[in-house]
Amino acid sequence: MPIFLFDDLDGMPKYSFDDIDNMFQKMGQALRAADLAVQDWQAGVKTGDYVFRRDYQGRPVFCEVLSYPDELPENFRHYRLTRSYSSLCPLGELRHLHVSTIEKVITTDEFREFKKRGWKT
After folding, report:
1. Is 63 helix (H, G, I), strand (E, B) or coil?
2. What is the extent of the structural domain holding 31?
């Protein structure tokens, strides 16, 4: 029976696997590739920041970075907990994101302006 792995909002490719070992191997490869793509400014994103990214279909997503535990396992160092907003989810939803997917840090004023516009760019 196939195992399916996908995460549309984080833009990760969709995969189908015949066994769980292959799935975890592919997940590890994808995480290592994402970690290697992180730029210094992305790694510096912290609680209280606002960021802009796009979903896997290129739609704009605006995120408020929320508090995350200080002590995280090493393989989670580039993840941030966010409340993410878009025209498809105007009230926001809790999500985690990998910082390599962040296109830019935005100001509080910019965030509020996008909110007024219904999260459209």
Report:
1. strand
2. 3-116
Give 79's contacts (C-beta < 8 A, 6+ positions apart). 68, 72, 96, 97, 98, 99
The answer as to whether 49 is a domain residue is yes
Cα dist. 80→7, 20, 21, 26, 120 in Å? 16, 26, 26, 22, 23
How is residue 67 annotated by DSSP? P
Q: What is the pLDDT of residues 14-43, one digit of tens each?
A: 667 778 888 888 888 888 888 899 999 999
Q: Which residues contact 40 (CB under 8 A, 6 or more apart)?
A: none
Q: Which residues on adjacent β-strands are paired with residue 45?
A: none
Residue 121 included in any domain: no
Q: Which two tokens stand for residue 38?
A: 């992180």
Amino acid making up residue 84: S
Which residue matches tokens 């909002």?
9
- What tens digit of pLDDT does each residue of 55-88 get? 878 899 999 999 877 777 887 889 999 999 999 9
Q: What does pTM read for this prediction?
A: 0.80
